[in-house]
Amino acid sequence: MVFQVTFQPLGQRIECLPGETVLDAALRQGISLPYSCRDGACGTCRASLLDGEIEYLQTPSKGLDDSGGAARPVLLCCAQARSDLRLDCPQASLLTGSPPRTFPARVHRLTRAAPEVMIVELKLAAGQGLSFQAGQYVDILLGAGRRRAFSLANPPRAGELLELHIRRIAGGQFTGHVFNGMRERDIVRLRGPLGGFFLREESSKPALLVAGGTGFAPIKAIVRHAIDRGSQRRLHLFWGARRREELYQRQLAEQWAAEHTNIQFTPVLSDSPAVEGWPGRRGLVHEAVLAEYADLSGFQAYVCGSPAMIAAARRDFIARGRLPEDEFFADAFDFARDAPTAPVDAP
Q1: What is the DSSP track for 142-198?
Q2: Contact predicate 1/19, CB 8 Å
Q3: pTM value?
Q4: Over 90: is that where the pLDDT of 87 sits?
Q5: Going from the N-terminus, what domains does the chain have, and what CATH number goes with each?
Q6: Nearest to residue 343, comparing CAs of 45, 11, 52?
Q7: Which residues neighbour 335 within 8 Å (Cβ) at sequence distance 6 or greater?
Q8: Rounded distance, CA 166 to CA 322, Å?
Q9: CB of 226 within 8 A of CB of 235?
Q10: Tens digit of each residue's pLDDT (9 = 90 or more) over 110-139
């Protein structure tokens, strides 16, 4: 059966087909929802079920705190409707920008930014520029339903070049190919733009941009786009890594902070040995945010990294920092699986 799904407070209603997730139905019908992994791991697509019944196509690996209240938490990337639904989803909005499409690109340049990080620049065919929002991602299509998702590190103005930051994963077939087999002028097939991770420009609240590892890629796109627009909105970038070398574009982030009074940058290392003489902050990157700002009630937070990092940031920013729940936006990087809905290699 076809069921009706209503999003509150947006007031928009869509149809959900049999076997279709609520997320897919919404995107198909012009509703923008926050999402990332599409695998029930990150919790980005969380909403509250006010009325109706759902069934999960696959059991979410992200635990949900269902305290038995009137509204049940659900993850829309895994849920299909079993009746008409009414959802509380404050982050739902009408979709803007271009719908996803499949297109080829040529490897333009490969740059080893760190021992385990490759920056891959892809060149589109003349006149085939991609319209997207800074922070979104593309899938690299590998055949047989397999794909790998990587955030775009360039702002929309970059024209025919797309920039990806790819970290090598031990035993990862695709990332191993990037480091050992990919060559300039190779052709890859992409699908995009995808994802709901982008700066909400209608807000004037200061934004905390929190990156772990190659989660810096979409944050870089967001900052560069804000600079291009001449935005004076306050942005504070926190970039966490284990070792100094993993902050592979630290000088660029320091340059942003030096040249723009509205931008701050705080690097954080969690596993830097004493012999490195690291003078900056140590520990978990989300803890560094809370050490800097005890009260987050007047902020927005944009967090990109592993599901564990995002879960910890969401929990602590809301509980300890009093961040409004609907002002937390996330993009989770997780290990890819060889399935049609596989999200990403890890950051």
Answers
A1: EETTEEEEEEB-S-GGGTTEEEEEEE--TT-HHHHHHHHT--TT-EEEEEEEE-S-S
A2: no
A3: 0.83
A4: yes
A5: 3-94 (3.10.20.30), 101-194 (2.40.30.10), 207-332 (3.40.50.80)
A6: 45
A7: 169, 344, 345, 346
A8: 34
A9: yes
A10: 999 999 999 999 999 887 888 899 999 999
